[in-house]
Design goal:
The protein has helices spanning 2-27, 29-35, 38-59, 62-70, 77-98, 114-136, 140-164, 169-189, 199-203, 206-241, 243-277, 283-316, 327-350, 355-379, 382-402, 413-431, 437-465. With 471 residues, the protein is mostly helical.
Length: 471
């Protein structure tokens, strides 16, 4: 039971971290949609998605490799930490040289804010690397302190600068840069991470560097392919329909992103626990149990968001942004499939088999972009939502089949298929707003809850009777 206690402890810490950051960004959505035009919102979203795409591209996610090896090789932890910081610094230099490219028209006007975009990248990148270092150093509580401070400052500044001082898009950049930038000082002053920067060991660490990059390089394209889906769709929408349409699509994506916050909490904790437990016996049983809980949480949360999407949109999507709310249901189903893909991805990482991650992700990215490009003229922004859905489904199929050569996780195929079918039906009736669609959506949620309760019954029996669990 000790490994489950570790997992629950990690989930608790990462929950505080996510609530402080991701949820704050979610809560700021009504402020942005109320005071920004669709053009301004589109530029803000373009800055966010480009930052998220460039980070794995320019750093090759070396910090994720650092985490994997630092947990096993404590003797050389200074090398891994130093390598991560050096790569992050070099990525900032490379981005500075690339800034003139953002003047191109398909970036939707982001070129007007080049310097602020660079500072935003730095304000996001360094805390991301430092939080990963904190996980490697078992400083997970420090992540919560940094995130809470960052979120509070960013939220207060956003309200003052945007709502009170009417600074518009510049108010967003100021609040984001200052809020995230403060967390850097938390990691420096309280975490004292500078003590693990050792350039002498770094210069003489070629064998370690070789294995670190061999592990990390496939991770970056895998993550990058996920971002390419987003960036490619947005660039196509911006180029064909304009930055205003891109802003509408971005607003519809924000509510499913709340689910992404929940998934990332579990994902970070799950990934850390997997690395810690990898060499222990009973790994398959550990995966089988966690799969049931994970799948139940993701499916119920997804179904609930689809059911309440009209209300959530009414509260969070102001003025003309509200028109895009029906797309939320499709994006939520895509999120559910993506969450399963992420779960399977941790198995590849635990076995240090990262190349298959790239293969499936690349296939998904190409399908998404191709579908969006082919149908954007006839379907508008709806083409991008279906592109993401089809892409997530294909990745799910590929990984579900391939993962069995590494670990035969019992994914409960019958209940999973029923859940996917019910979510699809719920999404269709909501997207098309059929008669009594809220009633039928509620029925789907109840049926999904029944399926998941049936699957969790043996685990619940274990908790209350303390009998040995048998799947």
């Amino acid at each position: 039971m000790e490994k489950y206690k570790k997992l629950l402890a990690n989930i608790g810490i990462f929950t505080l971290n996510a609530v402080a950051t991701k949820l704050m960004a979610f809560l700021l959505m009504p402020l942005y949609t109320l005071y920004f035009s669709t053009d301004e919102y589109g530029i803000m979203d373009m800055a966010v998605i480009m930052t998220n795409m460039l980070f794995p591209l320019l750093t090759m996610l070396i910090s994720e490799g650092m985490l994997r090896y630092a947990l096993e090789d404590k003797e050389h932890i200074s090398f891994y930490v130093t390598e991560s910081f050096v790569v992050m610094l070099l990525s900032c230099v490379i981005l500075a040289l690339l800034l003139p490219l953002f003047d191109l028209s398909f970036f939707g006007g982001l070129g007007q804010y080049k310097l602020w975009f660079l500072l935003s990248y730095m304000a996001m990148g360094f805390p991301t690397v430092m939080s990963t270092v904190a996980r490697a150093l078992d400083q997970t509580k420090l992540m919560s302190y940094a995130s809470i401070l960052s979120a509070i400052v960013m939220g207060v500044l956003a309200y003052v600068l945007i709502a009170v001082m009417k600074l518009g898009l510049m108010g967003y950049f100021y609040s984001y840069i200052i809020g995230n930038g403060l967390s850097i000082f938390v990691y420096i002053l309280l975490g004292k991470q500078y003590r693990y920067v050792n350039f002498h060991e770094w210069r003489n660490g070629f064998p370690l560097r070789k294995q670190l990059w061999k592990y990390s390089i496939p991770l970056a394209p895998n993550t990058l392919c996920d971002q390419i889906q987003t960036v490619g769709s947005r660039l196509i929408i911006t180029g064909v329909l304009g930055i205003s349409s891109s802003g509408l699509y971005a607003s519809a994506s924000k509510i499913p992103n709340l689910l992404n916050t929940v998934q990332q909490i579990i994902q970070l904790a799950w990934q850390l626990s997997t690395f810690q437990e990898f060499k222990n016996k009973g790994l398959k049983h550990f995966y089988d149990v966690i799969w049931k809980v994970y799948q139940a949480l993701m499916s119920l949360a997804s179904s609930a968001v689809i059911l309440f999407s009209p209300v959530l949109a009414m509260l969070l999507m102001q003025k003309q942004f509200y028109d895009a709310w029906p797309l939320i249901s499709v994006l939520v189903v895509a999120f559910y499939l993506s969450s399963i893909n992420s779960f399977l991805g941790t198995i590849y990482q635990a076995f240090m088999e990262t190349k298959p991650l790239l293969t499936a992700a690349l296939l998904g990215a190409l399908i998404c972009i191709a579908f969006t490009a082919c149908f954007v003229h006839s379907l508008g922004i709806t083409a991008a939502t279906f592109g993401v859905l089809i892409s997530s489904f294909l990745i799910f199929i590929v990984r579900s089949i391939d993962i069995r050569r590494l670990l035969r996780v019992d994914m409960r195929p019958l209940s999973t298929a029923i859940t996917v079918m019910l979510l699809t039906v719920q999404s269709i009736v909501t997207l098309n707003q059929y008669d009594h669609y809220l009633f039928w959506s509620s029925i789907c949620l109840l049926l999904i809850a029944f399926v998941q309760c049936y699957e969790l019954k043996p685990l619940v029996t274990l908790i209350f009777t303390r009998r040995k669990y048998t799947a």
